Amino acid sequence: MSKVKACVFASGTGSNFQAIIESENLNCEIVLLVCDKPGARVIEIAEKYSIPTFVFHPKDYTSKAVYEKILVEKLKSAGVTWVFLAGYMRLIGPELLDTYEGKIVNIHPSLLPDFPGKDAIGQAFQAGVDKTGVTIHFVDAGMDTGPVIAQESVEVLENDTIHTVTARIQKIEHTLYPKVINQLINESEATLCAKEL
């Protein structure tokens, strides 16, 4: 049986993207990287692993609806059934949400609903919390507001710096995200098989 095809959306360095594609026993095939930042390091990682990329600059399009329509066409032509956001710094609009309802997942470096949006680790550090962490959630129209799939916490110690906390959070992200991806796809495939019986 062929593997489920998935796409990763990313905007930055690609550490979560790399963790996903290097994960042993990943039960999906990453067939496309979508990146909204020409020149981002994540593109080099995709090239290293011979993963096709679609790189675009949102300002080149008249609206989000226009570029998302193109994205949907790219995803469909690649046979993508799941979309995993890994440091993609844009809200997902109706075109993608409607087409891939319940199949778009994001990872966020905080224990949502605390510290949504940009610089979540910095927000947590500024707030002086003694615990933060990682959340994996389904994507909806809001910013980091979709239903939570998994969370894992990270203690913030007295002598921590933002860099030490970031390193611990990323270590968890890199193991938790591939694990959750496998779990989601296994559950989805089991449901699909049951419906076919």
From TrEMBL:
Gene Ontology MF annotations: phosphoribosylglycinamide formyltransferase activity
Q: Which reaction does it catalyse?
A: N(1)-(5-phospho-beta-D-ribosyl)glycinamide + (6R)-10-formyltetrahydrofolate = N(2)-formyl-N(1)-(5-phospho-beta-D-ribosyl)glycinamide + (6S)-5,6,7,8-tetrahydrofolate + H(+)
Q: Where is this site: Raises pKa of active site His?
A: D144
Catalytic center residues: H108 (proton donor)
Q: At the top level of its lineage, which domain of life is listed?
A: Bacteria
Specify the pathway. Purine metabolism; IMP biosynthesis via de novo pathway; N(2)-formyl-N(1)-(5-phospho-D-ribosyl)glycinamide from N(1)-(5-phospho-D-ribosyl)glycinamide (10-formyl THF route): step 1/1
Question: For (6R)-10-formyltetrahydrofolate, which residues are the binding ones?
Answer: K64, M89, R90, L91, I92, N106
The entry marks the following residues as binding N(1)-(5-phospho-beta-D-ribosyl)glycinamide, namely G14, S15, N16
The residues the entry assigns to the signal sequence are none
The UniProt record lists the Formyl transferase N-terminal domain at 5-181
What PANTHER family does the record tag this protein with? PHOSPHORIBOSYLGLYCINAMIDE FORMYLTRANSFERASE
This molecule's function is given as:
Catalyzes the transfer of a formyl group from 10-formyltetrahydrofolate to 5-phospho-ribosyl-glycinamide (GAR), producing 5-phospho-ribosyl-N-formylglycinamide (FGAR) and tetrahydrofolate.
Q: What is this protein called?
A: Phosphoribosylglycinamide formyltransferase
